[in-house]
Amino acid sequence: MMSKQSTVTEKEDCHHVPVLDGNRHRVLSESDYTEHQYRMLLRKIDRYLLPLMWVAYGVQQVDKTGLSTQAVFGIREDTHLVGQQFSWLSTIFYLSYMVCEFPSSYVMQRVSVGKTLSVLMFFWGIIVLSTGFARNFATLMTLRFLQGAFECTISPSFLLIIATWYKTREHTLRAIIWGTANAGFGIITNLCLYAIGNHALKNGGLAPWKGISFFLGTITIVLSIFSWFLLGTPREVSWVSPEERRIAQARVVNNRTGTDAHKRREWKRDQIIEAFIDPSTWFLFFSVVLTSLPNGGVTSFGNLVYKSFGFTSLETILYNIPRDAASIIWFLLAGWASSRYPNIRFSLMLFAILPGFVGMLTMALLPNDPRYRWIRFGMYFMTMSVNINGLLLWIFVPSNIAGRTKKSIVSSILFVGYCAGNAAGSQFFQEKDAPRYVPAIIACAICFALQFCSILAWRLYLVYQNHIRDRALMAEGLTREQAKEIGAKLAEEDMTDRKNPYFRYTY
């Protein structure tokens, strides 16, 4: 039943979807503002958020995976790592990531998304910089544990920011734009790291892996200052006026996942339970695990795999650049396709797995012969296509999950899968299998095949759920626009996607 307040200003316009404005104590709707106002605000949002999110996401990626580059520049030898100790530096990072994710999500919901992220970013920058002073395995393990604890907030905070600023159809393209930072910022830093490594190898002095730590840590600290002033939800940032804040809230009401108009501090038990019993949560979880297992190994051992082809330490950095450049192009093509064609994300993920599977399997099965070096390079190059799946899976949280508490819980569950997969994936690569790591690469190929099956089954489930709801809608005699309007009202009451019969899943 609709509340009395919801019906006071209701109009016949099919785009009129009310949301309570906490500042003026009145009802906002999408029809309160013109398309020109929405376009102007969207440009401003993109101008402030996208460059900062791009750099921030790129920085966290290179901070996290910089260990792979440091490995070919002597960090293992200088800190006296033996056996599986290098693998454990990745595993401990993701275990810490997992343990600290739940309290971090709680703090973000209780305090501030942007401010929480910027403070933690400052501290992880200090940790990355301090890595350059490490002398042994124990020190590195401690620093990596702390880095994981501070770095775990960036992806869930970005998902919340996207959900509160952008419409559902805008989620994929925007997320993919900042997702290209993994490769784009990687190209920039690889060139800088090449210069650092080249200078150190030619002129001596500071070990190149130490210079890499000082360089990456300094960038992160500087970025945290910008994030403090610019990053956050519409309710948190100061670069929008009160009127622009209301426009931002009004433009996303049709997402039917709730806006940022109210600061919802309470945790709802029924939404926690629903998050755990929803089949979509577990389809997402297993898909993320199967994506993360190969990722955990490749991000730590990727440069060592390159080196096994017969390249030098400096060449491994340069030959990563074409792979990163191709990844950017693929990300942008996927973003363009998802914004132009509805319900294409699952098809993109399924397609992306195929070259990754073929590349991994062929690379493992080819003989260890210098004549096949460039073929193996090409096979490894092909695996970049599957990188997009991790990001596309996460975008389903703001697009397909409604209810503030449920979103937080599902995000945390997915991070458990993400961290567990990455932590275990680095252990695929055993010292006894060096330098080619054939068993580990075959295991990665198997994960891609299982991921294909999981994503396909999940898509069929969502199509079936939408079909059931459409049939119920026809039985009620409501039009799609009427259902869309009612669904948005229910979402503003913090109703979840499963309880809201007018919610429709994207796929």
TrEMBL record:
Keywords: Membrane, Transmembrane, Transmembrane helix, Transport
Transmembrane segments: 119-138, 144-163, 175-197, 209-231, 317-336, 348-366, 378-397, 409-428, 440-464
GO cellular component, one term: membrane
Top-level taxonomic group: Eukaryota
A molecular function (GO) term: transmembrane transporter activity
InterPro entries: MFS, MFS_trans_sf
Subcellular location: Membrane
Entry keyword Hydrolase: no
Topological category with respect to the lipid bilayer: Multi-pass membrane protein
Pfam family, one: MFS_1
Record has Aminoacyl-tRNA synthetase as a keyword: no
Name of this protein: MFS general substrate transporter
Organism: Marasmius oreades
Higher taxonomy: Eukaryota, Fungi, Dikarya, Basidiomycota, Agaricomycotina
